[in-house]
């Protein structure tokens, strides 16, 4: 969770991550995918955070990995980037 105080209002950006136990039986594999997702989100979240701060908006997002194979970091990074860009567009239009 990330909380940023701006003046009297609090701008909030929260993110959650999950991986299906049905597709990944071993907790080690689920945790690896969640680590990859969290790291790629951490690196790419700054633009979205800045847009939210400018508009004094709060956002909570939850990312669900639905694949059935262990992903490579580059694949996760690209997909996370495109998801965050779609969210940014929504807030820039408002």
Describe this structure in words.
A hairpin with a 2-residue loop joins strand 1 and strand 2. The mean pLDDT is 88. The chain has one domain (2-93): 2-Layer Sandwich (Ribosomal Protein S5, domain 2), CATH 3.30.230. The chain has 94 residues and is of the alpha+beta class. The protein has helices at 27-44, 46-55, 73-93; strands at 2-6, 9-19, 59-65. The chain is elongated and about 40 Å long. A 3-stranded mixed β-sheet has the order 1-2-3. It has 3 helices and 3 strands. It starts with a strand and ends with a helix. Helix 1 packs across helix 3 and helix 2 runs parallel beside helix 3 (73-93).
Calculate the mean pLDDT score and round it: 88
Task: Tell me the major beta sheet.
Answer: 3 strands, mixed
Low-confidence stretches: none
Helix content: 40-55%
Shape: elongated
CATH architecture: 2-Layer Sandwich
At the third CATH level, what is the topology name? Ribosomal Protein S5, domain 2
What series of H and E elements makes up the topology?
EEHHEH
Number of helices: 3
- Tally of individual domains: 1
According to CATH, what is the class? Alpha Beta
How many angstroms separate the termini? 24 Å
Radius of gyration: 15 Å
Physical arrangement of strands within the biggest beta sheet:
1-2-3
Task: Please count the beta strands (DSSP E, at least 2 residues each).
Answer: 3
Helix/strand/pairing category: alpha+beta
What share of residues are in beta strands? Answer: 15-25%
